Amino acid sequence: MNWQLVPQFAVTGLLAGGPLALMALGIVLIFKSSYIFNFAQGQLLLLGTLFTWWLTVEQGLPLGLAIVIAIIASAILGLVIERLALRPMTGQPLLAIILMTLALGQFLQGSALLLFGGTQRNFPQIFSAAKPYKIVTPFLFNDKPIIIILKQNLVWSFVVAVLGVAIISAFFQFTKTGLAMRGASEDHELAQSIGLRINRIFGISWAMAGMVATVGGILLATSSGLDLSLSLVVLSAFPAVLLGGLESIPGALVGGLIIGFSSGLVNASKVQIIRKSAEIVPYVLLLIILVIRPEGIFGQKRIERV
What is the pTM of this model? Predict the structure, then answer.
């Protein structure tokens, strides 16, 4: 390990876990309300981010206005997907519904390629990149204090991501719609029997997932650029979801931060082959955690009488 750079990579990885937590949150939102694991979340993220880029670069809209319009459009897209693709699958085997989300992902990926092309793009900067934050730690290395340099877009992306998770968590805790969505997730038939509109709840969950995906994609694109491979970043969100617990919103945040932190530590290694293995670290960590706690860190243990 390059011990002098360990704090730098660890903090950088932890902050990079913020947008990752937002992607995990989008998956949790749909699973929490409908028990469907959405494999099209990465493509929702990609389309929302590309649409934001198109509005601000090609159409000349202010970036803030473009983001608002893209978030609203993503919510509408989520509603359309639920109404046209998922609602007709009601009552079908769970595997068939999961395969439907896989098909949706491929359809959305192809649509993104047809509409926007596959070239690499520079996404407009939301936060200033000129003056990074400099933190002088009290720890010494070779009699010199360890200094951590953090880019502004990385820090503020983390803040926005954590704030988004907090808002969604408060929505589920303190609003009637959020409480109804939590109730529907426990038992769909029982929820219908007490007057909850299940289809409406499913539509809201898909709309929220689309909005969260767009915000997460925008935060990622500001630091890593924008092309069709952006949808693959969600592959790191799957371990974060399972790590934190499939039904836990705080678990999505904790899982994303753990994945980001561990990947940052691996990047601090002096051994090149270890650094190249950073992409598989989330899955190795997932295997270890699930052996110890199969339901995830914040997952619920369910005992059913047969």
Answer: 0.86
